[in-house]
Specification:
It is built from 14 helices and eight strands. It is mostly helical. It has two domains: 132 residues, Arc Repressor Mutant, subunit A (Orthogonal Bundle), CATH 1.10.10; 120 residues, Arc Repressor Mutant, subunit A (Orthogonal Bundle). Helix 3 crosses helix 6 and helix 11 packs across helix 13.
């Protein structure tokens, strides 16, 4: 068993990495998929809802910290569903919903702003000309690509989980995505996918490596499920008490239709994990 990324030619690894916060040219996103299919992804539905609400309400009220108001947060919460996200548990521990209490909405709003689809203006969140122009279904592919690039190459996903791992594994996220394309055909745990799809960090202390399976979930697997590219289920395997149910992940059919990679693969003995 060998990590998937070791199958890549060295020049292909370099092509999947970029020193700039932008999508590498070796990855093509949503070029040939019908726009209606990518428009169905949870994060795209939520982004479109934010833009539409901002238009119809002449802007959404922002808190002093720049977050959505409780009323707008609750309206979006009620209107959207998210894979691997327990809505009932959120409502059980929160009498009212602040944006920070609802991770998918918090992440969507921040990514949409960084993608310049929404902007803050005088205490309101308003749709930009670009955002409004992508509301039609015909603009869904460009909307998907913009949100995807912003989420994984421009936004620091460590902000949302607060794990002490800096930018890991976003430093090589293009390599991670290609590795998932060959390693995530069948149901696998986050630990297995982390071992197969991420590159080791030589200067990472051993104690920090213990966080990597969880970071694989929060920064790669769960966000990809919100883009409609992965699916998950509970594992039947028993875990330690109080650790919660273990989840398994695999690609959806949309993954290989949305993401295309211009890379060369070496022929090596052994099998991909």
């Amino acid at each position: 068993m060998i990590p998937a990324w070791t199958l890549l030619e060295r020049k292909s690894i370099a092509a999947l990495l970029t020193p700039e916060p932008r999508l590498p040219s070796a990855i093509q996103v949503a070029r040939t998929v019908p726009p209606a299919e990518v428009a169905a992804a949870p994060i795209i539905r939520a982004t479109r809802a934010l833009i539409e609400h901002a238009q119809t309400a002449d802007g959404l009220t922002l808190t002093a910290g720049g977050a959505l108001s409780r009323a707008d947060t609750r309206a979006l919460f009620d209107a959207t569903d998210w894979p691997d996200y327990d809505r009932a548990s959120v409502l059980a521990v929160n009498k009212v919903l602040n944006e920070g209490d609802v991770l998918p909405i918090h992440m969507t709003r921040m990514i949409a702003q960084d993608a310049r689809l929404l902007r803050a203006s005088k205490g309101r969140l308003v749709a930009t000309k670009r955002g409004a122009g992508l509301l039609n279904v015909s603009g869904a592919s460009e909307l998907f690509r913009g949100m995807f690039e912003t989420a994984f190459w421009r936004v620091n996903l460590a902000y949302f989980d607060r794990l002490p791992l800096e930018h890991w594994p976003q430093t090589h996220i293009g390599v991670v995505f290609w590795s998932l394309s060959v390693a995530a055909h069948d149901w696998k745990s986050a630990e297995d996918l982390r071992a197969s799809c991420t590159m080791p960090h030589e200067r990472m202390p051993g104690a920090l490596r213990d966080f990597t399976p969880y970071a694989m979930v929060t920064r790669v697997l769960r966000p990809l499920s919100w883009f409609g590219l992965l699916e998950s289920k509970r594992s039947m395997e028993q875990r330690q008490p109080f650790s919660g149910p273990k989840r398994l992940y695999r690609k959806t059919p949309l993954f290989d239709r949305v993401l295309a990679f211009d890379v060369e693969v070496r022929r090596l003995p052994g099998a991909v994990q």
